[in-house]
Amino acid sequence: MKSRGWFLPIAAALGFSFLYAPIVSLVIFSFNENKLVTVWSGFSTKWYGELFRDPQLIGAALLSLQIAAMAATIALVLGTLAAVALVRFRRFRGRTLFTGMVSAPLVMPDVITGLSLLLLFVAMEGLLGWPQGRGVLTIVIAHATFCTAYVCVVVQSRLSDFDRSLEEAAMDLGASPVRTFFDITLPIIAPALVSGWLLGFTLSLDDLVIASFVSGPGSSTLPMAIFSKVRLGVSPDVNALATIIIGIVALGVLAATILQLRTRPKKARA
Fold first, then answer.
1. In 246-267, which positions are buried (b, 16+ CB within 10 angstroms) versus exposed (e)?
2. What is the C-alpha to C-alpha distance for residues 25 and 37, in angstroms, rounded to an integer?
3. How far is CA 69 from CA 75, 128, 149, 174, 251, in A?
């Protein structure tokens, strides 16, 4: 019994150390005065100043945020429509093919997806003259393509448990199907929509492989800029940028946790 009681804490400590020790070391060395990230020579915040004076990293970060926001929004609309079609219309011609097409990006390797999208854009440019070259537009389209599959899965799971009697009651009271969808359905599935958008935003912001295939000159995203810099050695300003991103994510998680703890007693009283 004693050995079993010690096993779980030790296993948990080893697991968390394996996951978070690299992140902690990255944060610590972002305050290293030495340019060598493996040699500690004193506390300093100069690399954060160097980061904000680096137009390449700042420009790539802003571009990645714009692309991720646009791709996640497009994926949210398309993924929601696909989820509604799969859940509400049980039988229609081509349902099996449509389901496979929506689910394919979930299991398709990024290399294959990036290469196929590159060939598609080249063929479209030759036949239609659009899109002209590779840049921000092609990256947004590519990211929205695979993010749509993830949004569809999230929204579909919520719609599967949806109580249709609420919509039927609204339509019995005279509401049209469109107004019922916007006034009843959307507010109820709003948490799934927010989750799908955030998931798509994160996947787009994190993507490197697909963006490398469909990007062009002047459209380097943040992962591409970081990858090009670390090939010559890890730079402390990259550690500073990663620390800022970790801090923003941590604040978001903390705010969500506090909000959840505050709303839980209200639901219990209701």
1. eeeeeeeeeeeeeeeeeeeeee
2. 10
3. 10, 27, 16, 37, 19
Whether the CB-CB separation of 178 and 102 falls below 8 Å is answered with no
End-to-end C-alpha distance for the chain, whole angstroms: 42
Question: pTM (2 decimals)?
Answer: 0.87
In this structure, the number of other CB atoms found within 10 A of the CB of residue 4 comes to 7
pLDDT digits 0-9 by tens, 244-255: 989 998 898 888
Residues sharing a CB contact under 8 Å with residue 12, sequence separation 6 or more, in sequence order: none
Which pair of tokens denotes residue 126? Answer: 């030759």
Burial 31-65, CB ≥16 within 10 A → b, else e:
bbeeeebeeeeeeeeebbeebeebeebeebbebbe
Spatial distance between the Cα atoms of 219 and 107, rounded to a whole number of angstroms: 27
Q: Which residues of 201-244 form beta strands (DSSP E)?
A: none
Closest to 177 in 3D by CA, of 167, 186, 169: 167
d(CA 224, CA 204): 12
**Secondary structure letter of residue 233 according to DSSP:** -
pLDDT classification of 119: cutoffs 50, 70, 90: very high
Say which DSSP state 191 is in: H
pLDDT of residue 162: 84
Computed on alpha carbons and rounded to an integer, the radius of gyration of the chain in Å comes to: 23
Q: Which residue has the tokens 């916007």?
A: 182
What average pLDDT score do residues 9-25 get?
A: 89
